[in-house]
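Entry:
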Amino acid sequence: MATIYREIAVEIAAADAWAALRDPADVARVFAGVLTEARMDGELRWVTFADGTVVEERVIAVDDAHLRLAYSVGGGRFEHHHSTLQVVADTPARCRVIWISDFKPDERANVVEMLVDAGCAALQRNLARH
């Protein structure tokens, strides 16, 4: 199983970063530039990427106690996919967002890594404006 692990430093209080990330329906605003739209129906979310690709995701958990969001990608693109985004406070005005994606098949690593890296840049840019 492939794993992609990223830590994104953000000049924003952890509580403010979590307020922006905790709403799964608002993901297109947080990841603007990579995502153009998000639509929720229950625990299912469809996100539209800038290139027009639509991906179905299942929101697994919104954990306010641990500032952690967990989701999986469905729709047959992966044998398995599970990701988490967790906010960790560093100082009162700075935090890190830890993004971990575990998936199969391993051959999708290049595509997933490219999307995660673009998402990291968008998240850092957009949260700094929050």
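The chain has one domain: 2-22+57-129.
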